[in-house]
Amino acid sequence: MQRDTATSVFEALASGIRLDVYRLLVKKGMEGMVAGEIAATLEIPPTNLSFHLKALTQAGLLKVEQEGRYQRYRANIPLMLDLIAYLTDECCADQPEQCADLRAASACSQTVLPPISPKRTHP
User: Fold this and answer.
1) For residues 6 and 68, what is the distance between their CA atoms, to the nearest angstrom?
2) Which of 49, 61, 76, 93 is most buried, by the most CB atoms less than 10 A from its CB?
3) In what order do the strands lie in the sheet with 62-67?
C-alpha cells in the first residue's frame, strides 16, 4: 500500500457517519446493501448519505454495482486488511517477540493481522 492510499482511507473514515456506513457494510459482507437500506438502517437522510457514499467509494473503501435502478454497496475488506498490514508491517521489526506480546494484548483477531516479520540480521 502506498502512503497516499492510506491517507485517503483515513480521511474518508474521519467522519462518524462514514465510519458507521463502512462498519455496517463490513457486517453485511458480500451481500452488501442498497443505499436505501443503508439510510434506513442508520437513520440517515438519503440526500446526506449519497455524499458519504461517494466519499467512501472515491477512497476505495466501497465497491458499487448497479442493480437495475439501485446501486448495491459492498465494503472493500481487502483494502482494509492491506491498511492493517501497512500499519503493522514493521512492528518491533528488530524485536519480533515484543510484537507478539503486543498482539496478544490486543482484542484484534490474529487471523486478520499480517505475519510477524522475523528478526533482521544486520550486515
Assistant:
1) 33
2) 61
3) 33-34, 70-75, 62-67
pLDDT tens figures, 74-84: 999 999 989 98
Q: Nine-digit cell at 56?
A: 467512501
Which burial class, exposed, middle or buried, applies to 9 when counting CB atoms under 10 A from its CB (0-12, 13-18, 19+)?
Answer: buried
Rounded to 5, what percent of the chain is helix, strand, coil? 60, 10, 30
Question: In this structure, what C-alpha cell is assigned to residue 93?
Answer: 521489526
Residue 61 pLDDT > 70: yes
Q: What is the dihedral of CA 41, 111, 81, 89, to 10 degrees?
A: 150
